[in-house]
């Protein structure tokens, strides 16, 4: 509509030959109309500019969040499978603890154990330090206590029942330990 | 600058009392100036609108691609660790094939094998069908051929040297097979 008004006014002003002369009042009205038009259009431009700036900022946020999320997904991608493999490692340790294994069997079991540990290590899985270190509830689960002595000072891990594992900085399962008190 | 021109024109038109009457020509000039202003502002509005529309469309693409990528990352997250665990499964199978294992040791090995396979299966890892199926270069690597016979028709897998595995639809490693020809 504003486009129409503008074109109309333009025509009126340009066709001076036809409508020989416009009255001053008519011209003043046209000027005012045009001034309103300018304000309206500038308002509109500023609205679209703001919308553009908002959506641009939003897109940067979306991209930043997406990148962070992707990095996290990649970093911890092995978490689920690694967690599920830990019982196999436990079983292997138990099997290796059986008395009277032949050399062949022992070697075979150790090979499996080594290859599993190597695979996990490559993906960032590590054993949690336990035996002899200060008790840390972030990495250790106390299942029993013993009296502290010279060898096992108060609040250190005296014995490990089951190894704990972490993936980078994230705990997969805590070590089950006996704490000296 | 355009803002200044507009305000100036407005003042000129409104202060009729002061400059008692503007000539028609001066008024016509003002009208033309204002018309140009309108065009300029409308042009600007339409430019910002287009920029807004472009960046909005781009954002939708970024979000869609991000979601697709995330789904892929999650679906195949276990790929690297699973691949690295396959040699452990091979070692277990070899250990289980050793003659004269005691019942205890055999049971222990089978437990480890079962728990590993279960962990892999939960993450979507499956053995590739091989023995007796038609040879498929997508899943099988032919390392030897034998004469086809009644039991092993042409172009089927006659024997499996090493098991193959896939993660969902993606091959982790092909089965090493003997093909009947």
TrEMBL record, chains A, B:
UniProtKB keywords: Chaperone, Cytoplasm, Stress response
Single GO BP term: protein folding
Any one annotated GO CC term: cytoplasm
A Pfam family hit: GrpE
Positions of the UniProt region annotated as Disordered: 1-24
Gene3D superfamilies hit by this protein: 3.90.20.20, Head domain of nucleotide exchange factor GrpE
Principal cellular location given in the protein's record: cytoplasm
Compartmental location: Cytoplasm
Task performed by this protein: Participates actively in the response to hyperosmotic and heat shock by preventing the aggregation of stress-denatured proteins, in association with DnaK and GrpE. It is the nucleotide exchange factor for DnaK and may function as a thermosensor. Unfolded proteins bind initially to DnaJ; upon interaction with the DnaJ-bound protein, DnaK hydrolyzes its bound ATP, resulting in the formation of a stable complex. GrpE releases ADP from DnaK; ATP binding to DnaK triggers the release of the substrate protein, thus completing the reaction cycle.
Protein name in the entry: Protein GrpE
Source organism (scientific name): Lactococcus protaetiae
């Amino acid at each position: 509509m504003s486009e129409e008004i503008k074109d109309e006014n333009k025509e009126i002003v340009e066709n001076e030959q036809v409508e020989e002369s416009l009255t001053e009042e008519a011209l003043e009205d046209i000027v005012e109309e045009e001034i309103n038009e300018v304000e309206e259009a500038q308002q509109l431009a500023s609205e679209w500019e703001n919308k553009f700036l908002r959506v641009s900022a939003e897109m940067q946020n979306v991209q930043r969040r997406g990148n962070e999320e992707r990095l996290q997904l990649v970093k911890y991608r092995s978490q689920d499978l690694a967690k599920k493999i830990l019982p196999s490692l436990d079983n292997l340790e138990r099997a290796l603890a059986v008395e009277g294994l032949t050399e062949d069997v022992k070697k075979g079991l150790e090979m499996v154990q080594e290859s599993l540990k190597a695979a996990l290590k490559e993906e960032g899985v590590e054993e949690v330090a336990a035996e002899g270190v200060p008790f840390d509830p972030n990495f250790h689960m106390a299942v029993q206590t013993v009296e502290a002595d010279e060898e096992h000072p108060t609040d250190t891990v005296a014995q490990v029942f089951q190894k704990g594992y972490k993936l980078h900085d994230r705990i997969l399962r805590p070590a089950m330990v006996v704490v000296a008190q």
